[in-house]
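Researcher: Here's my situation. A collaborator sent me these components and asked whether they could plausibly form a single complex. I don't have experimental data yet, so a predicted model of the whole assembly would be a useful starting point for our discussion.
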Amino acid sequence: MVGIATDEEMRELEAAMAQYPAVAAQVEACRRSMEAYVIMQGIDPQPDIKASLFSQINNEPNLQEGLPVPDKDLQQPKVVSMQETKSLSWKWIAAAAAVLLVGSLVLNYVFFNRYKEFREYKDKYQSLLVSQNSILSKSNLYKTRLEQMQESMEIIQDPKVLKVPMPGTKAFPEALATVFWNPSSQQVYLKVNKLPEPTADKQYQLWAIVDGKPVDMGVFEMGDTASLLQKMKVTGKAQMFAITLEKKGGALAPTMEQMYVAGKIPG
Amino acid sequence: MEYAPTYTEDELVQGLKARDQKVFSYLYDQYSPALYGVIVKVLNDNTSAGDVLQEVFLKIWRHLDKYDPEKGRLFTWMLNIARNTAIDILRSKSHKLEQKIQNIVDDVHAVNGSLAVHPSTDYIGFSRILEKLTKEQRTLIDLAYYKGCTQEEISRVLEIPLGTVKTRMRNAISQLRNIINK
């Protein structure tokens, strides 16, 4: 009922009309009653008004240029138009929510992919760090080995150094070792060519035979160390070198039965 | 209280949108008494009412493309234009509220004044309505409908509590419906 309800009542009415068709029918019935009431109070206008109206219509050059009328005057029943704006704003909110949801899903996807990428890079970076460390330590190892080899080469190539090959004895024909001796500096080096690995409680011991007597030149390590020249004790005189297998730490006198190799100084 | 139509509502709307002056003439003949009655009741002044009626029909003719049948009947739309136009003019004349009220209160039983009632109107039916509605019920309906008064304004001027205005308004409308539907 236009004009007979307050704004608040209109809002309540609109809500009810939207929900219940029966309410909408009641409102329409009220509107028709009101219109019937108005029609019954109709008054005939003066006849010249119609003539004046039609002459004005016919003299209008362009109907589109009619004076603008305040929209309020042309408003259709408020109840219906308000309903429309209501459902319209609801649609807008729903559309906005849908857009936001889709946007958030897209962002989730993008960021998750980036995170996965980042995680891959992190793994790669860590494995690179590890391999770099291992390369570095290997390179240090090679450097040390190289230095040792150079040292060995220098000793072997020194013209003052005598090379004393020590072939295996009758008991151990397979064994072989070599002594490099510099008589002027008295320095003695040993290279193990082939000796069986001893048990944990035993160690090989190098002897120099000086004027028929064995002189201790020290025990030495086997394993990786044996592949290099090992620096032994010094001696200024020697006619012969030999290696026996002794108890760990070495013995005061060589055990003759356990002599693996022996070799005379050439010349 | 329906006018015997020679056009259906659809035909009316189509004809008017096609700028058919014969249809517009028919529309004028059918509805000008009702719209004129509303304008006269709102303004309580039949000297300017003719000009306003002409203005209202010009608005209808010019703005028919704005009418949407989905939103209500053509007559409802036209009635709103007439009522809103007249109430705007009433407000622009800055009549005092009390003056407006007095006009209505005085006018209630003065239907047979200087103005001739439209002959096609069922006058007997209208008298029946006048009998069955109390003076107060007519005053409430007329203030709200013809003067565009809010219920707060009616409460203030008639010095009746707002709740009472609402109750009596509801009863008046329901009484009107019962009479019309008989």
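Model: Some features of this prediction you could bring to your collaborator: Confidence is low (pLDDT under 50) at residues 78-86 of chain A. The longest helix of chain A spans residues 78-157.
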